[in-house]
Amino acid sequence: MHRILSKRFKGLLPLGFAMIIAMMILTSLVAASQIKQGADSMLSAIQQHSKNNKQLRNMSHAESSRSTILVSMIQTQDPFLLDELYFDLNAQTTKFNAAREILMMQEMDDNLKEMLEQQRKLSQIYEPMLNEVYSLLVEGKKVPATLLLTQQTLPRQKAVLDLFKDMADFQYNVESEANTKSKSDNHKVLTNVIIFDIVSVFISIILTRFILRRQREQDKELAYLATTDILTELPNRTNLISNISLHIKKKPVKPFAVIFFDIDYFKSINDNYGHEVGDELLRQFANKINWFIKPQDVLSRFGGDEFVLLLRSIKSEQEAVDLVNKLSNELDTSITINENEIFMSASIGASLYPLDGKDAKTLLTNADIAMYSAKELGRNCFQFFSKETSDQLEREHAMCHALHSVLKNQNKDNQLCLQYQPLLNIKTGDTTECEALLRWKNHNGESIAADEFIPLAEKTNLIEKLNLFVIDEACKQQSLWQNTRNNGMRININLSGNKIIFPKLLKRFIDNVEFYNLDPKLFGIELTERTIHEVSKGTIKHLEKMREKGVKISIDDFGTGYSSLSYLKKLPITTLKIDKEFIVGLPDDRADHALVKAIITLGHSLNLDVVAEGVETYEQFVFLKKYSCDIAQGYYYHRPLPGNKISHLQLAA
Ligand code: C2E
Ligand code: CA
Ligand code: CA
Description:
The protein has helices at 2-75, 79-105, 110-138, 142-227, 237-249, 266-273, 275-292, 317-331, 360-376, 387-408, 450-459, 462-481, 501-515, 529-532, 537-548, 567-570, 580-583, 590-605, 618-626, and strands spanning 256-263, 298-303, 306-311, 333-337, 340-344, 346-353, 382-384, 416-425, 433-441, 447-448, 490-495, 523-528, 552-558, 575-578, 609-612, 631-632, 641-642. By secondary structure, the protein is of the alpha/beta class.
């Protein structure tokens, strides 16, 4: 919710600014248009006034000319000049009237109209007097004419001229008023624009501050998300690494520990009970550790079901050992989630600073290695990092790598090959079968024990390719033996793996048998107890078919596995192979003695052949013969040999 809001505000920032800028532009445009309107109307008023003024000036000018002409008419003695002046007087009167007519057509203020009306009334009174003055002058009656002019006409004319002066003053006032008003209007508009712009800037400052605050909150939230695991609310891997690095930077005097936890069988818990239970288990697991640790220690979720504890509070290495011991016990418990009882335990690995590493990466890697070796020990264990474990892991890694390239190169340099160990039938003294055993001589010429590289291959998908190689080689060998003295020698092939690869292996075996046109009776398959629980119903069906065709099926290393004996019923087996671990103590070790006897009896009662592996001494052989073991395999009789050196004729009981 928080994040959605922040995102929305982030989007509003440019929108808000765009709006403010748009408003500022808009108000400026409105203001500009208002100012222009004011200027236009003032201009048209001025133009109108100047038009009116022109006509007023014309009228005033004509009127004052008429006064001058009248005075000249009184003064002249010349009758011709009198007529001329009278003519001029009439011309000025026409001018006056024309200007007045034009003026009357213009737009005018009411006051001006009123003044013109006053002028009309005054002119109406003295206009006829002018003709009278002229008539008196023409008749030579100068005195009455002068009296009429000076006492009646000229004062009225002066009143008209005064009126024009008032009109001109009035026009000027109107104009300057309009000018002042326009200036004040412009001022108002500008003030409004400035106020508006200040408000806009103010709003944008508030908006920016608000958005920046949200942004800061969002950044904080993002930083939290980048450094915290949401499910457990613990620091995440990045956070932990920087925590360790920071602590190392401070050059700590006391040692500190990095402890790696991996919840045992978390994947199956998740698969069986669902992710909700898995998530709750992770939370409760974290809570349990958190209860134990001090504030200066940092528990983090490293990823998946892995947690890492940075233990800063310890004073000595022993304290770390004690705490890990305690934690291991505390975590080995059962909890109830959604009414399901879940058994919780963890494999724990620890590394110590500065002994096992001087930087975060090395400390974490070594704690992980220690955790891995704790897991190998059978889970619910804890291990401190040791150089030996690390070397062993490195060696295993190198071995896997080398084996992988041998298989990728299709064993071109023959590093891999099969050897065959003959088996002795104790009753008849014959050798009719052998076991194919894989040998690996690496590019340095070193022989690597099958016991070492096969379990490693079983942990990776290399085992599938190895098994296919063995099947191909064993079938090829069998086809080579077809026309030799070894014709009829059964080859027992060891197969190991998981339920995914078994069907592929069995198919490859059948294809090979067909390809070389071999009798299936010439083969046996050995399955270890270790891998038997991986055999699916489909594989059992395949095995049944193969058994019908005469393929022998043995349970290898019998007695060492941890699965129930029920597979003796489920699988179509023909043979039990007693592991050499039980043979080694024969005939003196009472337990071996009892166990071997029991296995032979069990095998026979199930109608199975019993093979004893690892027979090294005559005494062992005698013991096995005494208790009716069917077949013996071991150095006492023969070591494994290359295929071309095997011959059953050379073997004698
Ligand atoms: P395994 O199937 O129980 O093989 C018997 C092992 O005992 C062989 O060791 C063999 O050399 C050894 N052995 C035979 N006689 C004696 C004896 O008298 N004393 C002692 N101490 N050992 C004896 P190897 O060849 O090292 O094989 C070890 C294991 O590796 C085998 O045990 C088998 O589980 C696995 N393995 C070997 N070859 C293959 C293979 O081709 N495929 C698969 N999947 N596993 C194989
Ligand atoms: Ca075997
Ligand atoms: Ca065995």
